[in-house]
Amino acid sequence: MNLFFLTFVLGTSEFVIVGLLTEVSSSLRITISTAGALVSAFALSFAIATPVLTAIFSRFSKYPLMLILIAIFIAGNLLTALSDSYGLLLASRIMTAVVTGVLITLAMTVASVTMPAEHRSKVISIIFAGFTIASVVGVPLGTSIGQWGGWQMAFWFTALLGLLSLLASSTTIPRGLIGSKGSIQQQIQLLANSRIIIAFCIPALSITATYTVYTYLTALMQDVLFIPDRYISLVFMLYGVITVFSTLIGGKIAAHHGISKLRFVFLIQGAILASLYWTSQNAVAGIFSLCLIALVVYMMNSTMQLYFIDLADRHSPSARDLASSLTPVSINVGIALGAAIGGYVSTHLTLIDISWVGALAATLASLLTFVSYRLDSHTCDDSMCQTSTTAG
Predict the structure, then answer these.
(1) Where a domain ends, among 130, 162, 179?
(2) Same domain, 6 and 49
(3) Distances (CA, A) of 384 to 43, 57, 310, 316
(4) What count of other Cβ atoms lies within 10 Å of the Cβ of residue 76?
(5) What CATH number does the domain containing 137 carry?
(6) Alpha-carbon distance 206 to 330, whole Å?
(7) pLDDT in tens, the chain (392 residues)
(8) Is 377 exposed, middle or buried (0-12, 13-18, 19+ CB in 10 A)?
(9) Which residues contact 376 (CB under 8 A, 6 or more apart)?
(10) Angle 157-152-102 (CA atoms, 0-180°, nearest 5)?
């Protein structure tokens, strides 16, 4: 439960800035696009630093390492709360992003090694749900606090949450989890493995598919579905609530040969995204499509997390921690890529065209999953032999 709370705190800190960009831009006298660069800087710092630092820190014992990183996380949020210039704010967000990625990785690693194999998928889905619920509960609460007491107040709030997480972690994280004895070179070599590269692209493309649409969801609701502004926040809340179920369903998928099922989940995701092109002609039908998009968006999380760990166990056991970092890193790459593609499409085509472009990305994710499943079905390693009969 503590790991769930930790990811909830991390998610709240990461995403609360999105709801406060107007306040930040007004306070620091910068443009809204400059303020928005804080979101991109966080995602890129997360994606770049997480695998590198995870490889470096993998040799350390988990208990003291996690407590130190949570303390740095708290310091990063305090620095954000005290920022009176854009440069200091940017530096504090990068600092927070770097430790956020490593903490998520460590949470996944602790869960995967301390729980029985039959419970791993359920526990990991619950940890992922912490991030999802942060967008439903933590972010609206933090945004309200920031709008009431100034945007800095929101980060005093996340620093307080971080302190509570530190206290909880100090009493619940197992103390006997030692680090890996593998060298940094052995860790990094995992990233050159073709199976890992293929697997990394799967969640990246799936999230790209969704975020091609989601990044521009407000504009889509205003200009295509013609939803009154007073209802837009309710649609976002509905979307967020449904993503919680997406994460939990994903845990059940992961428990029963998840890769074999994701091949078809991504095809369904593509069909749903493509359907938005036609359902957008009616507000109710369009919202229904958005709900279905939310329902499938995180179904792959738990499966891919366990898949990376299993691939590492087979090809580079010393790089298990690094493997645990690849799902959240891939997701952040997908978010950045989806936002960029959606921006290009909405600028050079029409806004609703983001639906079928997102569907293409989901289809590519499905094709790569078919490839990975095919390789699993015909590959026999020293540690594991998988055949086509393992599929559910």
Answers:
(1) 179
(2) yes
(3) 35, 28, 9, 13
(4) 25
(5) 1.20.1250.20
(6) 10
(7) 678 899 999 999 988 887 787 788 889 988 876 887 787 788 888 888 888 888 788 778 888 999 999 999 999 999 999 999 999 999 999 999 999 989 988 888 887 777 766 667 777 778 878 877 887 788 788 878 888 888 999 999 999 999 999 999 998 888 877 766 656 666 677 777 888 899 999 999 999 999 888 877 877 888 899 988 778 778 878 888 898 889 888 888 887 777 888 989 999 999 999 999 999 999 999 999 999 999 999 898 888 988 888 888 787 777 777 787 788 888 888 887 887 888 888 888 888 999 999 999 999 999 999 998 888 776 644 444 443 333 33
(8) middle
(9) 259, 386, 390
(10) 60
99 vs 105: CA distance, rounded Å: 10
Report the candidate in 369, 374, 358, 341 with the shortest Cα–Cα distance to residue 269. Answer: 358
Domain containing 383 equals 182-392
**Is this model's pTM higher than 0.70 or not?**
yes
Look-up: residue for tokens 């070179």? Answer: 185
Lookup: tokens for 252: 């059940």
375 pairs with which residues across the strands?
none
390 and 261 within one domain: yes
Q: Are residues 314 and 218 in the same domain?
A: yes
Q: How many domains does the chain have?
A: 2
- Indicate if 272 and 199 belong to the same structural domain: yes
